[in-house]
Amino acid sequence: MKTHSEAAEIFNKDFDRTTWHDETLYFVRQKRDKAAFQIKDWELLRETASSIKNNVLSNMHDYLLQFEENAIKNGIKIHWAADAKEHNEIVYGIISEYYKGEIPVDTFKGMVKSKSMLTEECHMNEFLAEKGIEVIDTDLGERIVQLAEEPPSHIVMPCIHWKKEEIGELFHKHLGTEKGNKDPQYLTEAARQHLRDKFLTRPIALTGVNFAVAETGEFVVCTNEGNADMGAHLADIHIASMGFEKIIPQKKHLGVFLRLLARSATGQPITTYSSHFKKPREGQQMHIVIVDNGRSTQLGREDFRNSLKCIRCAACFNTCPVYRRSGGHSYHNAVAGPIGSILAPNLDMRANADLPFASTLCGSCSNVCPVKIDIHQQLYKWRQVLVQEGYAPASKTLAMKGMSTVLSNPGIFKFSGKVGRMLMDKLPFLVNNNMNPWYKQREMPEPPEESFRDWYKKNRKK
Amino acid sequence: MSSRNEILSKIKQNQPDLLPLPDLSVLGTEQYDLVQKFTEILEGIGGKVLQVSNFEEIKKYIISNYPINARVISTLPEFSENKDWQIADPHKLKDADFLIIKGQFAVAENGAIWLTELEMGQRVAPFITQYLAIIIEKSAILPTMHQAYEQIGMSDYGFGVFLAGPSKTADIEQSLVLGAHGARGLVVFLV
Amino acid sequence: MKVALFIPCYIDQFYPKVGIATLQLLEKLGCEVVFPQNQTCCGQPMANSGYEHITGDCTKLFQDNFDDYDFVVSPSGSCTLHVKEHIPLKGKIYELIEFITDILKVESLEGEFKHKVGLHQSCHGQRGLKLSQMSELNAPFFSKPEQLLKNLKGLELVTLDRKDECCGFGGTFCVAEEAVSVRMGQDRLADHLKNGTEVLTGGDTSCLMHMEGIIRREKHSIKVMHIAEILNQAI
User: Fold this and answer.
1) Domains in chain A and their CATH numbers?
2) Does C190 touch chain A (CB under 8 A)?
């Protein structure tokens, strides 16, 4: 697996495409600004949402119990999964049980799924595929990356890295659209027809969960396309997968989050559909799988627990100057971008040790976050943890220790500064080569005649 | 069941000390010309808003804008006496062209309309139909989502939705296309 | 007013002119300025790389040098922020611009600087020290650096397409993530070039060093000056 910086270097080889990717996402950031600035109480709304989520984290146990009790009363079946594997097994078990252990392989058509980053995190599609159950992603962007056999590169706009010409080509190959047609209207219509057939023939629908209300036992799913509803209202079984942190205390709190979510995500005043599922349709089964998968561990990390406040709007992606110029796949995690970089190390420190360093700590992410997660502060703190847990390269540790020695000894510092400047002045080839990443595309600073302290001694010191 | 208790006990052990819930009463103080704001916002997200004075005007509009042979379904007796579709297999609605229903209330700040399955006839109906028309009373437009949830209160439903405009996607290069999976068009009649 | 000058290590070694301008500017504004001789670095390069735990000696040295002063001033938003957040001092540290506007209470400066100036908002100065309003927030506009620049005769402040995007320096990020770092710098410069910047300025020499490295490699005609140099030259 490539590290973020290795993948980003490859991404940046195509200059124009990087420009396009950056500008497309910055445009979304601007739409977010415009929508946010139309709400006079925007900052108060963020503060309120943050406080609600802080309360949720502090009362998680009781809210989950309350949610479970109410959902069961509503006729929903609740399952608990400690990790990704258990989640996938539960989903398989629900299907298997519905068919009394004998899934009719010949006639069974599988599952339609609307966007659920959690199932990406759990690699559920692959798991079910191995069991012979086909999962069709029904969000247009997700269907595109699924046909291309890629993971999504963005949690709200899964194929933001794809150009329409390429999508035209992909649809020509898989859906039989006319060759060379890249018109978004035409391609979307083709996907509509293709997926309508799936909605009408799949007996199982899986959706994510945006919010689960403890007070009432209902859950809310937000989409623009209507794919969650097309799936859920036609299927015999509706399975909803949720990380336990999706819980909110009361229904009235939805007012706060629904005002923030779409405006932060895409600049829309609200998503087209904010669907409140409370009871199964007559004759239908409704299941909720509540997943931990490391979240309870994160809840116990004081410095990092508030990453669990995230409502997955991806505003931090769109504003992040590094994300925009490196693409979602360079983060090698289901959730990319700044928020992904503080969530991923909790799942696997070794595999994700590079991610908290894929940031300049500019802080824009924390400023756009609708629930006020201190994302850039957590990036800084993860760096400390990762180094102390031994996930930094030895060469880097050596260099840092050397630097620390020089910088904490004024005598050595004064001497090495002079030597450094002299080296660059007299022997520029020593540093001006491609072994020095600074010099690849940038000139070194021109070494001055004397340091400030030397000047000061001559000119000011009595 | 073992995972349940394990997860819950770990959460109990790891959650921080209790923090209070914030006061929501300070939010939602926006003052709008409700009809104007709702119209402006809904049209901005692809919906169409028409002010009408009676059902006859609505009927006239539908006849002149949609083909004669379209399959029109409605929960309102003024538009269709047939109620069979409401208890039929939802898959049978796949060829519904036009659904006309009444919304409970609407929200000015975001153009959303609150519907529960009672108004929908069938849960899938407002999604699977090609085109959707919703009738809203002008007096039932609320300023923000805070008033909206106050209005909903603890009323019971199996399924409810805030619906704002036609189905849409911008997944292909951020180009807005209406009619992704749900209704291709939404017209709201304000009475 | 007596102030102790903290000149970050790379300014001392590579950009002494920024230190000199800072000192002269503060003197012109009526301060008595001293430079504690044994200062080196605040430790930020290590801390931002995940090595905060080995910065103890740096911190101690910093305190030894500066604990005798009520006011410590530095021409670097980034280093100032690090000291504020990580090094307890008996006095208080200020970034140069905020010291002039908030402590010396200078409303505006009289002088002349006949150039089109593009202001780079360094992230740590802006979002960290809140030297100016941040584009992400729905909050009233203010800008401490603009407050000092805008009344200079002949100075025209350039309006950028993206007024506060990061330049991509980011400490060790600039070498660890070289490709993205350079691309971010190039994009910042493209914005300045498009909008007519003649002199690129800012409160952080690190950001300026990074962008100057690209300017010189790509042979752009933009001149780079720290804001202290402009103010010191103008008044």
Assistant:
1) 39-293 (3.40.50.10420), 408-459 (no CATH)
2) no
CA distance C69 to C89: 9
Domains of chain B: 32-190 (3.40.50.10420)
pLDDT, average across residues A117-135: 95
Residues C125 and C29 both lie in one domain: no
Regarding whether C120 and C98 lie in a shared domain, the answer is no
In this prediction, does ipTM exceed 0.90? Answer: yes
Instruction: Give the tens place of pLDDT for each residue, B52-94.
Output: 999 999 999 988 888 878 899 999 999 988 899 999 999 999 9
In this prediction, residue A433 has a pLDDT band, given cuts at 50, 70 and 90, of: low
pLDDT over 70 percentage in chain C: 100
Asked whether residue C229 falls in the same domain as residue C181, the answer is: yes
CA C230 to chain centre: 12
**Chain A residues within an 8 Å CB radius of C164:** 364
**Same domain for C179 and C135:** yes
Reported as a single tens digit per residue, the pLDDT across B14-25 is 999 999 999 999
Q: How far apart are CA A204 and CA A135, in angstroms?
A: 9
Give the nearest partner residue to B8 out of A44, A61, A302, using CB atoms.
Answer: A61
**Closest alpha carbon within chain B to A143:** B171
Looking at chain C, which subunits does it touch, using at least 3 CB pairs closer than 8 Å as the criterion? A
Specify the pairing of strand A219-223 against strand A211-213.
antiparallel
Q: Is C60 on the interface with A (CB under 8 A)?
A: yes
| CA–CA separation, C81 and A451 (whole Å) | 24
User: In CATH, what number is assigned to the domain containing residue C136?
Assistant: 3.40.50
Touching, B vs C (3+ Cβ pairs under 8 A): no
Q: Among C103, C125, C155, give the residue marking a domain's end.
A: C103
Nearest by CB to A200, which of B4, B8, B94?
B94
Nearest to B144 by CA among B22, B30, B25: B30
Q: Is B10 on the interface with A (CB under 8 A)?
A: yes
Asked if the C-beta of A441 comes within 8 angstroms of chain C's C-beta atoms, the answer is: yes
For chain A, the chains sharing at least 3 beta-carbon pairs closer than 8 angstroms are B, C
Minimum distance, in Å, between the CA of residue C123 and any CA atom of chain A: 5
Phi, psi of B72, rounded to the nearest 5 degrees: -100, 125
Across the interface, of A408, A442, A454, the residue whose CB is closest to C210 is A442
**Are C26 and C131 contained in the same domain?**
no
Asked whether residue C68 is domain-assigned, the answer is yes
Touching, C vs A (3+ Cβ pairs under 8 A): yes
Q: What average pLDDT is seen over chain A?
A: 94
Residue A413 confidence (pLDDT) above 90: no
Q: Is residue C70 part of a domain?
A: yes
Q: What is the pTM of this model?
A: 0.96
> Is A79 in a helix, a strand, or coil?
strand
Please tell me whether residues C87 and C131 are part of one structural domain: no
> Does the residue C132 lie in any domain?
yes
Average pLDDT, chain C: 96
- Please check whether residue A442 touches C, CB under 8 A: yes
Does C108 reside within a domain?
no
Does residue A106 have a pLDDT over 80? Answer: no
- Hey, CA dihedral for A25, A28, A29, A30, is it positive or negative? positive
State the pLDDT at residue A425: 56
**Using CB atoms and an 8 Å cut-off, which of residues 71-110 of chain B contact chain A?**
90-91, 94, 107, 109-110
Same domain, C61 and C26: yes
Q: Which of C138, C182, C186 is the best substitution to test chain A (most A C-beta atoms within 10 A)?
A: C138
Do both C7 and C51 map to the same domain? Answer: yes
Among candidates A216, A275, A292 on the partner chain, residue whose Cβ is nearest the Cβ of B161 = A275
Q: Domain boundary residue among C73, C103, C133? A: C103
Name the domain count of chain C: 2
Residue A104: what pLDDT?
78
Q: Which among B10, B179, B181 has the least Cβ separation from residue A296?
A: B10
Quick one: pLDDT at residue A415?
77
C174 touches chain A (CB under 8 A): yes
Q: Is C192 on the interface with A (CB under 8 A)?
A: no
Question: Coil, strand, or helix at residue A298?
Answer: helix
Q: What is the mean pLDDT of residues A38-54?
A: 97
Q: How does residue A432 score in pLDDT terms, banded at 50, 70 and 90? A: low
What is the span of the domain harbouring residue C94? 2-103
| Pair A358, A344: CB distance under 8 Å | no
CB C116 within 8 A of CB C158: yes
